[in-house]
Amino acid sequence: LNLNAGMEAYSGGTWASSINYYKGTFYVSSFSYTTNRTYIYKTTNIETGPWTTITLNKVYHDHSLFFDDDGKVYIAYGHDNIQLTEMRPD
Question: What angle do CA 6, 36, 66 make, to 5 degrees?
Answer without folding.
Answer: 120
